Amino acid sequence: MKIYSHSRLSTYEQCPLKFKYRYIDQIIPEVGETIESLLGKVVHDTLEWLYLLVKKGRVPTIDEIMIYYSTKWERDYDPKITIVKKDLTNKDYFNKGVKFLIDYYMKHKPFNDNTLEVEKGIVIEIGDYKIRGFIDRLSHNLKKDEYEIHDYKTSNNLPTQEKINKDRQLALYSIAIKELFGYEKKVCLIWHYLAHNQKIHSKRTNEELEQLKRDIIELIKKIESTTDFYPNKTGLCSWCEYKSMCPQFGGKPIEIQKVL
Length: 260
Hints:
Elements: E1 2-5, H1 6-14, H2 16-24, H3 35-55, H4 62-76, H5 90-108, E2 115-126, E3 129-141, E4 146-153, H6 161-164, H7 169-181, E5 186-193, E6 198-202, H8 206-225
Parallel strand pairs: 1-3, 4-5
Antiparallel strand pairs: 2-3, 3-4, 5-6
């Protein structure tokens, strides 16, 4: 049974050629991690650490949060990291993370929303395929008897409610939660847009989730029948690790491909 993920499906939708380079040819990119990726990873790790302590009965101080974040950043930062926006520096991105975490801490302390798990791995079967992923945080709202799937975003973009209502990733995860706790259970999807210190909520009906399953099967079949993996030039190309190999930018793929 073939295994897919939301990110794998999204890569194909974003750019079929990038999908081919990453998942079929398995080419090791010449360009390493971007500063945005580092920011997201370190902020996520810090929030995971925070809630693990909360689950053990202790709320860390804001100073402890900052120490953990700073230590993690220094450990993971590579001086060769890619910074696309040349008017910004490593320090600028580090400070963004500081603000994200302080704002989040002040807004959500004492973090008593009954967190069940952090970085929860999920696998669901859809037709002949498996979809796997990780939930940033899962909580159970006791007042509403509602499970809440939390996702943290560090990008500057703030999507509309309409776009959120069509989001596939957390909707997929809600299928896993319903399979675990019962399809009659209510599940709320919550996105934390840290750059804006805002939360956006959305829900899906069981009928919408069944349609999502059909849509995913159709997309996977399209992927597996594709023979022409064309490049799709967008504003995201500046952050693509395969840009130097892309024919849209005069590049050619390396002849000897290295497996990731």
